[in-house]
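Structure tokens please, single chain.
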Amino acid sequence: MAGEPDPQGDAWVRDAVSRYEGPLTLYARRLLNDSEAARDVVQDVFLRLCARPRSEVDGHLAEWLFTVCRNRALDVLRKEHRMTRLHDEQVDRCLSPTPGPHDVAERHDMGARVLTLLDTLPPNQREVIRLKFQNGFSYQEISRISGHSVSNVGYLIHAGIKTLRSRLFDGQPAEAGA
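Here you go.
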């Protein structure tokens, strides 16, 4: 890259890579269903970050990274003209470990079922639900990442969860604690 290296800038970018590379790769992999393409997209995101002045992304770095990641992943999908779904083995790898050993199997089955059902939702509902519950973004942040209005983000999350709940419990009300 042109010019003198900026030690503070390098440290800032290294910190961003350390903090966000994993979540961005998971997000891109879920959008693309391709680990290699996801890594390429995330690498491109960080190259674009290196080209930006820090002042342009300070205060909203996570939103900026996820927005650029989403846009690059959508570019890849458009280029390849395909949308794919996660395979069962990939779903199983995405499940996070549970704290209590006594309910590992039950939670695993429930989590796998939720992830399978999540794939049946429209893409816009899937995306906002993942950004909210898997990445912890606020409605405002999701709005800026996805391009949907804040109220639409709320509606999409509400409608998606309602559909998931209905499908998960086969139209029966959820038991307390379920």
